[in-house]
């Protein structure tokens, strides 16, 4: 099968996000200028550099109570900071609860039953239960093609890791089993690892 996106795929569900998978999930916490916390997951997300550490995520769509975008991008545009919380397997239900279409004045930490604790390097809250959190300062917000599509790039200014996830000097993902997004309503969990040596020059 081949299709051009502008012509449509003819399938009952869009296969694009199923093809580009698995994707890590950025559970992004922000706050608005009034101090109201917000928490929402984004799976168009990845690390893009490590020295200095930088991350990127994409936001698609908009809300009626925000201009052009969703709460997350609006809050980042206003405050210049955000925190990416990593989603462990046991956090799938609160993560899913935070996807509800709520008003901009609603605190998703409370809705999801999560503990919000202050970040150290930025004025924002983070998910206490997360195995790791990346505190970020805004670098760029780039408007993409299509209505309400934005790319947000952040510089990582602080990193939290739970001590029980560190073993032998490594941050071991199988200690918490990170959640990954697939297509449709599907998710996956990282449970097994293997090493592969790169060829020498």
Descriptive key words:
single chain, 201 residues, mainly beta, Pnp Oxidase, Chain A, seven-stranded antiparallel sheet, three-stranded antiparallel sheet, 4 helices, 37% strand
Short description:
With 201 residues, the protein is mostly beta strands.
Which strand-content bin applies to the residues?
A: 35-45%
**In terms of per-residue confidence, which ranges show pLDDT below 50 for 5 or more consecutive residues?**
none
The helix-and-strand class reads mainly beta
Number of H/I helices: 4
Q: How helical, in percent, are the residues?
A: 10-25%
Largest sheet: 7 strands, antiparallel
CATH topology: Pnp Oxidase, Chain A
Ordered list of secondary-structure elements with their pairings:
Blueprint: H1 16-19, E1 23-24, E2 26-31, E3 37-42, E4 45-50, E5 53-60, H2 71-79, E6 81-86, H3 92-97, H4 108-112, E7 116-118, E8 125-127, E9 132-143, E10 149-161, E11 166-167, E12 170-171, E13 179-181, E14 187-189
Antiparallel strand pairs: 1-13, 2-3, 2-6, 4-5, 5-10, 6-9, 7-8, 9-10, 11-12, 13-14
Structure notes:
The chain is mostly beta strands. It has a single domain (16-189), classed as Pnp Oxidase, Chain A (Roll). Helices cover 12% and strands 37% of the residues. The strands form 4 sheets. A 7-stranded antiparallel β-sheet has the order 3-2-6-9-10-5-4, covered by helices on one side. A hairpin with a 5-residue loop joins strand 2 and strand 3 (37-42). The longest helix has 9 residues, at 71-79.
């Amino acid at each position: 099968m081949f299709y051009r996106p502008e012509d449509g795929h003819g399938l009952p569900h869009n296969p694009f996000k199923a093809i580009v998978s698995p994707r890590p999930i950025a559970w992004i916490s922000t706050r608005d200028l009034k101090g109201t916390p917000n928490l929402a997951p984004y799976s168009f997300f990845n690390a893009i550099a490590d020295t200095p550490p930088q991350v990127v995520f994409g936001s698609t769509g908009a809300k009626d109570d925000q201009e052009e975008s969703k709460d997350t991008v609006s809050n980042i545009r206003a405050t210049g900071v955000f925190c990416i919380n990593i989603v462990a397997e046991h956090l799938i239900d609160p993560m899913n609860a935070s996807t509800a279409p709520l008003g901009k004045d609603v605190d998703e930490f409370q809705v999801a039953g999560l503990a919000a604790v202050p970040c150290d390097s930025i004025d924002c809250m983070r998910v206490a239960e997360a195995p790791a959190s990346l505190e970020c300062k805004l670098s760029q917000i780039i408007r993409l093609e299509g209505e309400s599509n934005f790319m947000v790039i952040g510089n990582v200014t602080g990193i939290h890791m739970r001590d029980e996830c560190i073993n032998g000097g490594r941050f071991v993902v199988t200690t918490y089993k990170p959640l990954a997004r697939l297509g449709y309503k599907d998710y996956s969990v990282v449970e097994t690892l293997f090493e592969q040596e790169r060829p020498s020059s």
